[in-house]
Specification:
The complex is a heterodimer. The longest helix of chain A is centred in the middle third of the chain and has 30 residues. Chain A is built from seven helices and seven strands. Chain A folds into two domains: about 35 residues; about 160 residues, no CATH class. A three-stranded antiparallel β-sheet of chain A has the order 6-5-7. Chain A is about 55% helix and about 15% strand. Chain B is of the alpha+beta class. Chain B has two domains: about 40 residues; about 160 residues, Up-down Bundle (Butyryl-CoA Dehydrogenase, subunit A, domain 3), CATH 1.20.140. Chain B contains eight helices and six strands. Chain B is elongated. The N and C termini of chain B lie close together (about 5 Å). Classes of the chains: A alpha+beta, B alpha+beta. At the A-B interface, strand 1, strand 5, strand 6, helix 2 and helix 3 of A face helix 1, strand 1, helix 3, helix 4 and helix 5 of B.
């Protein structure tokens, strides 16, 4: 059975005759990635998202960095960094920092958990379609790794004149960065829809621990 | 013409959100059956939207680099810093790798984005067919590195939040920071609103 896939980046039509279980298909003309399967199963992605949530809480509760000058110490938190812009009259910049470094990562984690946990149990969460779309749309705006490097730059700049030290939150944020990177890697755009089609009972193939009707048993036998 | 067959010629649409290939039904724009996102042959007004964003960003690139982004007030000294002077002070400090990183992220990347997107838009409007592969590669690079320009905005937010020891030193934000952040956001949006297929359309037409 063959199907046609059209490249999203150059509109070239490709005929796919069959797909290996693990495959990465690129457009023959513009080299855009058309299709990628991966090992990441639903359970490990849910576990990863739960880890990310715990790290997110840690990263936001404790101080990020401390600065000591002449014996007096000042600390700041993640949200404190955004607040500094607000206090100096740059509200738009405060929103930008809070959105890209705090709000988007949190939305990504919560949305994933909200949609994937019910899917694992064999039913669709209300609003699933909209939320998967939201996840794809949010992706370019989550900037945890960029913030992390920005923090390194700020620490290096200050270390010339004062004593600066990273605190618990910065470490948690660094680990959050890694778990979000792993989440992004485990969920190429297509993956959500593959999960939906294998878990929602529309198809029977390759879904162990699932009833053919796709409802009710909680996905376990 | 070679044997290149496009989705458009087959009456197939690609969902820009979930990338499903969908058969077009009539002339009307419909929603993707898989994810519900609106479907279109080409993103509506992609060229003009991207062009408007690039031009606005190019205008703001000047104040972003000329105006100071922060003001440091210490007991015996006052200092205004632009993006570039921030890089230079990192060099004086001896932090070469960090200076290079900031130089690339804050100065090279925004400029590259403006020049690259400008060239791509110009090539499309002139209907240039050659070097499409290179332009497409250039666009992907721009898309990939674009977010790293936010680095200086984040660094600035931490500096302004930490260095608030009234008797010793304070750091204040200056309007250059706003212009700089605007350039970064506008170029990110410009890359997102651009429909890459516009690059290839001239190639497919014979």
């Amino acid at each position: 059975m063959s199907s046609v896939i059209v490249c999203h980046a150059c509109d070239l039509a490709h005929r796919l005759d069959s797909l290996a279980a693990k495959a990465r298909v690129r457009c023959v003309r513009c080299r855009a990635e058309l299709y990628r399967t991966n090992d990441g199963n639903l359970d490990s992605v849910i576990a990863l998202a739960a880890t990310a949530l715990a790290l997110f809480v840690l990263a936001n509760v404790y101080p990020l960095v401390a600065l000591t000058v002449n014996g007096s110490t000042r600390m700041t938190t993640l949200i404190g960094a955004a607040q500094a812009f607000y206090e100096q009259g740059y509200g738009a910049l405060a929103i930008l920092v809070a959105f890209t470094a705090v709000v988007v990562p949190l939305m990504q984690i919560l949305t994933l958990l909200y949609v994937l946990v019910p899917l694992r149990l064999g039913h669709a969460a209300p609003g699933q379609k909209v939320l998967f779309r939201l996840l794809t749309a949010l992706r370019p705006w989550g900037m945890v790794e960029v913030f992390m490097l920005g923090a390194v730059v700020a620490l290096v700049k200050l270390s010339a004149q004062a004593e600066v030290s990273p605190r618990i939150s910065l470490i948690a944020y660094g680990l959050l960065m890694m778990s979000i990177a792993a989440l992004t890697n485990a969920t190429p755009g297509e993956q959500y829809w593959r999960w939906v089609s294998t878990c929602s009972g529309a198809t029977r193939r390759t879904a162990p621990r699932r009833t053919a009707t796709g409802r009710g048993t909680g996905g376990r036998e | 013409m070679t044997s290149l067959v496009t989705g458009r010629s087959l009456g197939l649409l690609v969902c820009m959100r979930c990338r499903a290939t969908v058969r077009a039904i009539g002339e009307e724009q419909s929603a993707c059956p898989r994810c519900g996102a609106p479907l279109f042959v080409r993103r509506p007004r992609s060229f003009s939207t991207t062009a408007a964003l690039v031009i606005t960003a190019a205008v703001l690139y000047i104040p972003a680099n000329v105006l100071p982004v922060m003001h440091t007030h210490e007991i015996f000294s006052e200092e205004d810093d632009t993006i570039m002077s921030g890089v230079i002070s990192l060099v004086h400090q001896g932090s070469w790798p960090i200076a290079l990183l900031v130089f690339f992220a804050s100065i090279v990347v925004p400029l590259l984005k403006l020049v690259a997107l400008g060239e791509i838009l110009l090539a499309i409007s002139r209907g240039r067919v050659r070097h499409t592969t290179q332009r497409s590669r250039l666009f992907r690079i721009v898309e990939f590195v674009g977010r790293w320009s936010m680095l200086d905005v984040f660094a600035l937010s931490l500096l302004a939040s930490l260095v608030q020891i009234q008797s010793l030193a304070t750091i204040q934000i200056r309007p250059g920071a706003f212009a700089f952040a605007a350039v970064v956001v506008l170029t990110l949006l410009a890359a997102q609103t651009f429909d890459e297929r516009l690059l290839w359309d001239a190639d497919t037409r014979d």
